[in-house]
Design goal:
The structure holds 2 protein chains of 2 kinds.
Chain A: E1 5-14, E2 23-33, H1 38-51, E3 74-75, E4 78-79, E5 101-105, E6 114-116, E7 119-120, H2 123-130, H3 152-162, H4 169-173, H5 180-192, H6 200-213, H7 224-228, H8 236-251
Parallel strand pairs in A: 1-5
Antiparallel strand pairs in A: 1-2, 3-4, 3-5, 6-7
Helix pairs in contact in A: 2-6, 3-5, 5-6, 5-8, 6-8
Chain B: H1 15-22, H2 28-31, E1 35-39, H3 43-55, E2 58-62, E3 80-81, H4 93-103, H5 110-130, E4 155-156, H6 162-180, E5 183-186, E6 189-197, E7 200-208, E8 214-218, E9 221-224, H7 245-252, E10 257-258, E11 263-269, E12 292-296, E13 314-315, H8 317-321, H9 331-343, E14 351-352, E15 355-356, E16 359-362, H10 364-370, H11 372-390, E17 399-408, E18 411-412, E19 425-427, H12 445-468, H13 479-496, H14 505-519, H15 526-546, H16 558-582, E20 596-597, E21 600-601, H17 605-608, E22 610-615, E23 624-629
Parallel strand pairs in B: 1-2, 1-9, 2-5, 9-19
Antiparallel strand pairs in B: 3-4, 6-7, 7-8, 10-18, 10-22, 11-17, 12-13, 12-16, 14-15, 16-17, 20-21, 22-23
Classes of the chains: A alpha+beta, B alpha+beta.
Chain lengths: ~260, ~650
């Protein structure tokens, strides 16, 4: 376990509130060990800022083990930073070199308004799920779990899609700020399973309509979302979402209206 | 204070049914007239809010996270138990009940535990119907595994992300109700106080974490599903935001706090790497199935590379001390022994604060025996996670592990209905003390959270409201409401304006955590606990004098949020130490060095077979102890032995 100390220059996006124009501010991070996580490095910087009477850098984080999806920032132009399949909280400082300059920005998308510094409002994702990302089953009315077998490969595929943590890196990485990967992952997870068939078509139409209403862009197959996704959620789910949508549209009786934001 | 468990009597297998038959209902047409507040959106809170909304109640749900999908239930890896007996290995509701009572070291209420085991089968049905992608066999039926030393395969799982998938199931059910308009969701909103009117819980005071606005929310009843208090140790496997504030605020209003000293220290976590460390990461317990735990026999070897230490110089302490169970001894035993060998100066890894706190978990033999391929299939993702954090590959060098706080069995005292000692205030999930006794078995936290949320609370809420019928209206300008709001605002001002501001709240939290971890952690003694009880109030005073928060209270201010939580951890930490001091026995996660026999825990059923329910008296450190005696009609107390 070799340990090295790093001195780094951080250029951090500071924005006092949703209506503030925002600007970059430069901070020094000194004597950072390579065993620290990226967020622990920011903790050290923040503790010093507080002791010096300054406002600490606001950033979202919670579980710090890569599963809750709360953390996320653009590090040197890359959502969640340089390490593949890794959330910001699991990124460690050994990925950086002494003297590095690091640029930190929030997710930038009109669907994710900045609340403060690196903290953005991702409630648009919640509204996309509310539009139809569920199977309607009343508590207590489920039948015996093994009554309906699900082929292992189908269950495995559903699980692949269900691994999305809702962090929003896909939106931040996309040149169109599209939420297609997020939306497609949930549509695919539920449409693959026999339990999800009854609402399959409605679900696809409503969730896509909500995604559009939130101001996210369309998918033009850049593939940046999959590259940035810390859970490796696959682009092929977007193709599946489009198939689901076409299928739903040709069988629809009436168009589904977008809900209000 | 009267502690009435309100549990039904008669044959244990009929109690829950009998209880349901005897209780009151609210008619479907009347439910929308009642407002129910649910604080927390994890497995218990999310499931309760969704189910109550579905039934037609007017629900308001609150969480501090930016979305209800992020509650820390999401981080549970291993699985969820259910007595389905799909594997035909003789499992039954009774056996799950028996294992849970025994695993809890005979410190839980039999009626509650039986109900938990009974409901476990419905949880799986519910989750599967919601689309939770549990592991399946090639025939398409649900797969199971044996977990945490259980002798039957009753654990259902979704890769290493069972908690995530179950939580997303509850979150999606909740989202459906938000869309339907039965649940109003308040995310980034923190509960800072309880509104009590006429002796009943009638609402909460919250702070919006985006704007700092403090507001009252009035309701007919309040349910807390706010998780555990493991972050009192500062370092734990909990999320950084997990806190005890909501529960502690209600304790200060009269809700008894039960068994705070029962905390679970999980043996296989990645050790602390430095003083800056912000949290600890759990590695699944399944690793002990194939890994061998050891430390160097000689102190001079602790800095050597493990590969350079000869076989005869390796001390496989669990295998030597517990030949029958070896590396698979229960969590508390494995944790305590790691403490002892590192106390003896045999710990490995980097020095933090002058101590090496780590032991090896070695897969060398398993790789030789089974091949790297098999080990990769079993533990590939865990090895990857370990390498991402430590930069060491467990295929090449032994893992380093050390115990870390993982779960808190203690919590708000509740009766069989999950009602606290304040009428109209209920608690579910890890926030209550109910089902795990002094020690929780693996894969039973998810089970309890969902049993409470989907199946117990939706019923007992109806019983409460059916009994009280109509509560008098409570206006926002009533003194009980404005008083609570003012108290919250004054406390925020007090935190913002410490007389001699010097340090960020983390500084004090780390110091508190150090006291609790060393004096009220895996192994406790009178002298240490008494010292902690002298040190904590001093540190608390220093905190209130010197805590430094920049910015204002009327904006997004993460330092202020943390400070408020740390302030409550000080009071809870003191109660924990007091409870640990008074409990002059060793049971489950609570090990008192004075009460052991040949190094093994010595329970004292004659004097301590009770739930310690602590009552707030107005002064921190001077609570009143109330006892709920525990009786065992079905599972007769016996001694745990793993030698």
């Amino acid at each position: 376990m070799s340990e090295e100390l790093l001195n780094l220059t951080l250029h951090v996006w500071r924005q006092d509130g949703p209506d503030d124009a925002g600007r970059f501010e430069t901070h020094q991070a000194k004597d950072i060990t390579t065993h620290m996580s990226f967020l622990e490095m920011l903790d050290v910087v923040n503790e010093l800022l507080i002791e010096n009477g300054k406002s600490p850098i606001a950033f979202d984080h919670d579980c710090r083990e890569g599963i809750c999806g709360t953390c996320g920032m653009v590090i040197n132009g890359v959502a969640h930073g340089p390490q593949k399949l890794t959330t910001t909280c699991q990124l460690h400082m050994r990925q950086f070199k002494n003297g590095d300059e690091i640029w930190l920005e929030p997710w930038r998308a009109s669907g994710f308004p900045v609340l403060k510094d690196l903290v953005v409002d991702r409630t648009a994702f919640d509204r996309i799920i509310q539009a139809g990302g569920y199977i309607s089953i009343r508590t207590g009315s489920a039948s015996e779990a093994n009554e309906l077998p699900v082929a292992k490969e189908i269950a495995d595929q559903a699980m692949d899609a269900a691994e999305c943590i809702g962090c929003g890196a896909c939106v931040a990485a996309c040149p169109n700020a599209s939420a297609s990967l997020f939306t497609a992952a949930k549509i695919s997870h539920l449409s693959l399973l026999p339990q999800g068939q009854a609402e399959r078509q409605d679900r696809a139409r409503k969730m896509v309509a909500q995604m559009d209403a939130e101001g996210f862009g369309g998918c033009t197959n850049h593939g940046e979302c999959e590259a940035a996704c810390p859970k490796g959620v696959s682009l092929r789910w977007i193709a599946r979402m489009n198939r689901e949508l076409v299928r739903a549209m040709v069988t629809a009786d009436a168009p589904i209206e977008s809900r209000k934001r | 204070m009267q502690l009435r468990s309100n549990e039904p009597t008669g044959p244990i297998e009929n109690r829950w049914e009998k209880h349901k038959e005897a209780n009151k209902l609210v008619s479907p047409a009347n439910r929308r007239k009642y407002t129910v507040i649910v604080v927390g959106s994890g497995l218990a809170g999310g499931a309760a809010a969704a189910s109550l909304g579905e039934m037609g109640y007017n629900v308001k749900c609150f969480c501090y996270q930016d979305s209800p999908r992020r509650a820390h239930s999401i981080a549970a890896q291993g699985g969820i138990n259910a007595a389905k007996n799909y594997q035909n290995d003789g499992d039954s509701v009774y056996r799950l009940f028996y294992d849970t009572v025994k695993g809890g070291d005979f410190r839980s209420r039999e009626s509650n535990v039986f109900r938990l085991a009974e409901l476990s089968v419905q949880i799986i049905d519910q989750a599967v119907a919601q689309g939770v992608p549990f592991a399946r066999e090639y025939g398409g039926l649900l797969g199971n595994r044996s977990f945490g030393g259980a002798q039957v395969s009753r654990t259902f799982y979704a890769r290493g992300q069972t908690g995530q998938q179950l939580l997303l199931g509850a979150y999606q059910a909740l989202s459906r109700q938000i869309e339907a308009g039965t649940v109003e969701m308040f995310s980034r909103t923190e509960m800072l106080d309880l509104i009590v009117h006429d002796g009943r819980a009638r609402g909460i005071v919250t702070r919006c974490m985006k704007t700092g606005k403090v507001s009252p929310h009035i309701a007919d009843m309040v349910i807390l599903c706010t998780g555990g208090y493991g972050n009192v140790f500062y370092l734990s496997t909990n999320a950084k935001g997990c806190n005890c504030t909501a529960a502690w605020r209600t304790h200060r209003h009269g809700a008894a706090f039960a068994n705070p000293c029962y905390t679970q220290i999980h043996p296989t976590c990645i050790p602390q790497a430095g003083t800056y460390q912000s949290k600890l990461t759990l590695m699944s317990e399944s690793l002990r199935n194939d890994g061998r735990v050891w430390v160097p026999r000689k102190k001079e070897d602790v800095t050597k590379r493990p590969e350079d230490i000869a076989e005869e110089d390796r001390y496989y302490y669990l295998e030597e001390r517990y030949p029958a169970f070896g590396n698979l001894v229960p969590r508390d035993v494995a944790s305590r022994n790691a403490l002892y060998v590192t106390n003896d100066g045999l710990g490995v890894g980097p020095e933090v604060d002058g101590e090496r706190r780590g032991v090896y978990l070695d897969f060398g033999d398993a790789i030789d025996r089974l091949g790297e391929q098999t080990i990769q299939e079993r533990y590939g993702n865990l090895f990857e996670m370990y390498e991402r954090i430590t930069n060491d590959s467990p295929y090449e060098t032994p893992m380093r592990i050390y115990p870390a706080t993982h779960y808190t069995m203690g919590g708000l005292w509740v009766d069989y209905n999950l009602e606290t000692t304040i009428p109209g205030l209920f608690a579910g999930g890890e926030a209550n003390f109910s089902d795990h006794g002094a020690n929780r078995l693996g894969a039973s936290a998810l089970m309890q959270g969902l049993a409470d949320g989907y199946f117990v609370l939706p019923f007992t809420v109806g019983n409460y409201l059916g009994e009280v019928r109509t509560l008098p209206p409570l206006a926002e300008d009533h003194a009980d409401v404005t008083g609570a709001v003012t108290a919250v605002e004054e406390r925020i001002q007090k935190l913002m304006n410490a007389p001699d501001p010097k340090h960020a709240p983390e500084h004090f939290h780390r110091m508190l955590g150090r006291i609790i971890w060393t004096k009220c952690g895996m192994s406790r003694n009178k002298e240490g606990l008494e010292k902690a009880l002298r040190d904590i109030p001093k540190l608390r005073d220093q905190f209130w004098r010197e805590v430094k928060i920049t910015g204002t209270g009327e904006e997004l201010n993460q330092t202020l949020e943390r400070a408020g939580r740390v302030a409550d951890f000080f009071e809870l930490g003191e109660l924990m130490c007091l409870d640990a001091l008074r409990r002059e026995e060793s049971c489950g996660g609570h090990f008192r060095e004075e009460h052991e026999e040949n190094g093994e825990a010595l329970r004292d059923d004659d004097n301590f077979s009770y739930v310690a329910a602590w009552e707030w008296t107005g002064t921190p450190g001077e609570p009143r102890l109330n006892k709920e005696p525990l009786t065992f009609e079905y599972v007769k107390p016996s001694k745990r032995s793993y030698k």
